[in-house]
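We modelled the chain as a single entity of 296 amino acids. Its sequence is:
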Amino acid sequence: MTPLLFALEDGHPLLGPLCHGLGAEPGRLERRRFPDGESYLRLLGEVAGRPCLVLADLSRPDDKFLPLCFLCDTLRELGAARVGLVAPYLCYLRQDARFHPGEALSSHSFARLLSPRIDWLITVDPHLHRIHRLDEIYSVPSVVVHATPLLADWLRGRPEPVLLVGPDAESEQWVAALAGASGRPHVVGEKVRRGDREVEVSLPDLNAYRSHGALILDDVIASGRTVLSCLRALRAQGMGPVDCAAVHGLFADDIEDELARAGLRRLLTGNGVAHPSNAIDLSPALLPAIRHWLAG
């Protein structure tokens, strides 16, 4: 039976590519806010007996989580055969331990709230720290797909020499894998974090790469302060031009203009979170995993 694909937000850039690649029908929703701020949601069309997918941009999730719950619950109540969640960016993975007494383990709480409402979960390069696999906190089957092959294909199309730069130790494994897949050299910096928006990145001596352009790589750009500090460190060593690519661009501080003023030539992000910098289509990575689950 033809699957239905519902987008939690209108105009999501992955809706068209995924519907086309899956032969899915776009699900129709009516959504609005009541005057008191509560959410209204209505499904337009029959879902009984049909496999249903929910495509959700879970950046800035606090305003989106209740509508997501209402949608998944309603699909189940009206007889959807299965309800799968495609969340290219998966939120609430940062706070996976209590660093200070009394802190909420929000990663665990979020997973417990979401798991009963879906049958499976697919995401792209989640920003895992002390949790190594999603099934440590999610009670439903989950699949993690990777954007590395997509970025490697993009890099192979660039004839000029490029140095791949990971801003910190967390990026090292990802940047090294991309360097191996694309045949490009790479370095990794050291980051000192003094607060949510105060970071300092230092880089090794780059004299051997003066003939190269630089590509800063990260899985997530949140505030953008790590990228900005890395960019300044590259420029201080005379590197240029400098581009930046990230799987997920959140841009919490609207930092794009500041990055441009600091000398960033180009910014590229995956289209799991809608942004003008979207230049990496994640659908080729997502489609095989979705087809697997639809096959049952």
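As a brief sanity check on the tokenised model: DSSP finds eight helices and 16 strands in the chain. The chain has a mean pLDDT of 93.
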